Amino acid sequence: MPKSFGVQVGIVGKPNTGKSTFFAAVTLQDVKIAPYPFTTIEPNVGIGYVKVKCVCEELGVRDNPVNSFCVKGWRFAPIELIDVAGLVPDAWQGRGLGNRFLDHLRRADALIHVVDASGSTDAEGRPVEPGSYDPLKDVEFLERELDMWIFEMLEREWKRFAMSVEATGAKLDEEIYRRLSGLEVNRDAISEAIEAADLVGKKPSLWSAEDILRFVRETRIRAKPMIIAANKADMPSSKANVERMREKLKNRYFVIPTSAEAELALRKASAAGLIKYVPGDKDFEVLGKLSAKQEMALEYIRKNVLETWGSTGVQDAINSTVLEVLGYVAVFPVADDQKLTDSEGRVLPEIYLMKRGSTARDLAYAVHSDLGDKFIAAVDVKTKKRIGASSPLYHRMVLRVIAGR
Fold this sequence. Notes:
single chain; 405 residues; alpha/beta; Rossmann fold; Helicase, Ruva Protein, domain 3; Ubiquitin-like (UB roll); 3 domains; seven-stranded mixed β-sheet; five-stranded mixed β-sheet
């Protein structure tokens, strides 16, 4: 049964890239933010939101959100964010905070890699002349750290494991799946990785270290998909780097220019009633009286971030991760398909994030196990059609489940 309302995204990167600022901007949760390595020791865990066009305006109703909130026709669906300690080269060998960092990522469904696009921090996260460090190196190094972390888990006692699989005739993908179960990787991904690594039919006892590492890379791509948040995008040295990263990585990752500092400033100003701003918007409206300093800061953000990139990129990074990379769809369940209410009369109270390919019965189980067990049929509220248990869900679907007693 697919997960719903439980999407977990890890925010990763080397120290001093703006990773914790990104987390604070998304969650408005106080975290330690400072320009030196290992500001974050234990992971910060908070709630972020996926921004989805609500169906309230389309259906001509005023909604009463319960598990989410709606602003100007946009519904914000919650997800869990995990901001972990900054990663330094050879963390997989225990350097820096090493394996403690990596272990915090086990339950993440996907990763947002916050990279300093300005090139003003070296491989260790120390400040250097802007533009003097190549941010592409950070992408390569994080891939290696994750690969070596998984490789170590798998390579230990590989020969004994391989011989056992061959002796018992067990299915290789199933046994590897069990061995890597702590990574939240599914069995289909293991099978796909074996095929992509060109290892189908090769006895595991004959796999070389290079074979295992190739398989691990393919597994990591599927188990921990990632986008690149090219942060500090407002700095002069960033634009060329963002364009180069997009070109070099276009077949592997979404590269989204971000300014976490700008997003944090806008959200704080909005919370203080100084501006009207909805996360992900391309502009803001001034509401209150600003000091000269505040006015200057907001105008800088408007010119160097919003007008240059179209938004701060932070909300785009969250949305791209969940809706595009992970492939979730947002669904609105209701108990009454005429009034669009739940059993308590609240209009469109809930939104569920469901993995693409999930069915009407899957949503029923996500709402309540009894609803899934007693599922009879469902009604697609938009089309007014009655659908079966195996009917696939689509993005922004409104669904009423019909269940027995």
